[in-house]
Here is the input.
Amino acid sequence: VARVVLGNALAASRRYEEAIAHLREGITVLEGIGALEVQPEAQQILGRILLECGMSEEGRYHLERGLALAQQVGDRLQKAIILRHTARLLADNGQLNEAFSTLDQAMALSSELGGKLETARATMLAAELRQRSGDWQTAERLANQALAMFNQLGARIDQQYAADWLAMRAG
Here is the structure.
């Protein structure tokens, strides 16, 4: 578990190579000891980082593995997070309809669970996807909703992202 935490921290510092190495080692250890309960999050983090580094096939594999494990152990929050990352991957691959469908599932699940930060992040991604599809009005409305949620939660990094996104569209 320590390697997974370290990998996540390294990724936050943009030290991706080290993060990926620690996450891979951590997952190997978790698999070796049969610690299924923490594997969905570890797989999700590794998948997300790999996607950010342009390694989409390996990233997709880890997201799919994380989703299967999340379903197996009943980790519904990780399922929602993984579905959100999968929606971004689908959109990046030009599959907007599938991305919207997957994101709808993520938003419904995170909302049902009361996961306010995850709901806000999914709402922000919905804004981005709506913008890609040419629906600027809905995109702006969703981004403003996400920004309000981030403000309420005090999620400063997410707040800044949403504010910058809105400013870029306004200017």
Summary: The chain has a mean pLDDT of 95. Residues 120 and 146 are 5 Å apart (CA to CA).
